[in-house]
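Justification of computing resources. Each target in the renewal requires a structure prediction run like the one illustrated here; the chain below, 297 residues long, is used simply to show the kind of job we budget for.
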Amino acid sequence: MPWLTLIADTDAEHAEALSEALLELGALSVDLLDADADTPDEQAIFGEPGEPPPGVWQHNRVSALFNDDQDVAAILRQAANKIGLKDLPEHRIETLADNDWVRLTQSQFDPIPISPRLWIVPTWHTPSDPNAINIVLDPGLAFGTGSHPTTRLCLRWLDNNIKGGESVLDYGCGSGILAIAALKLGAARAVGVDVDSQAVVASRDNAVANQVENVQFYMPNYAPKDTYDVVVANILTNPLRMLAPLLANATRQGGRIVLSGILEEQAQDVMDIYAQWFDLDAPVFEDGWSCLSGTKR
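Resulting C-alpha cells:
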C-alpha cells in the first residue's frame, strides 16, 4: 500500500503546534527537521555545557505521513486553521511507494572503503577484505556510518595519523565510529562525549559489537576533565565555534585536534578561531565539506 507524505515549511512559532494538529487530524507520523540543514544557516538545537539550549530551529520542515485515501490538502487547511495560520505554509505532497523497507534500507548501505586497510561494514555484509581493519556498524539513531563526507574525512585523518598508544577524545561521538576506529588503529584509550543520550547508548553498543576495550562514552556533564593526545569533533560549525575553548583545553600541549562538520565556505572562519591555540594544517575538502587539523602550541 502506498502512502502520502506532506512536506511543509514553517517557522519556530508554529512548528510544534502544526505537527500536533496534523497528528490529531490523522497523520500516521510526523517528523520535524531543520529546513536549513546542510547550508550555512544550519542550526544546532542541543545545548552545550555551560550554555543555555538554543531551542527549536528557526526554519522548520514538517514531514507528515498519511494513508493514500486521505485528503492531505484538506487536512493541512484544517490544521492551519486550528493553530491560527491565515496562510497555508509552503508545502508539497508526495507519494511514497510501498516497499520492503528493511531490504531497501540495507541495499543503500554497502561496505564503505575508507582506505585500503580500513572499512565500514554493516552486519548484513561479509567483509570484502577479512584482513583489513573492519568496523562493524549499522545505520541507526546516531549520526556516523561512514557514508557522510565529514565522517570519512575524520576517519582518513585517523588512519593516517594514529601511530599507536594515543589517548583520544571524540566530542560529539554520535555512533562512536571515530573512537572505535581510533582504537582499532592502535590508540590506547578513547572517550566519547555526546549531548544526545541515544548517541551514548548507540556508541556503547557499537563498541561492544566491535570488541574494543578501554573506551567510555558520556553525556557532557559526566565526562572526565582530562587532556588527550588527539581530540576529534565532527559536529557543526556553530557548536565548534562555541566549544573552541573547551576543545582546546582538552588537547594536551603538542597534541592534535581534528574538526569537521564544517562547510567549505566556513572553514576559514573556524580556522581563525582555533588559531589562538593551534598551528593549523592546510584544510582538506570533500563534496563541499571541510576537515581541519592542527597541533596545540
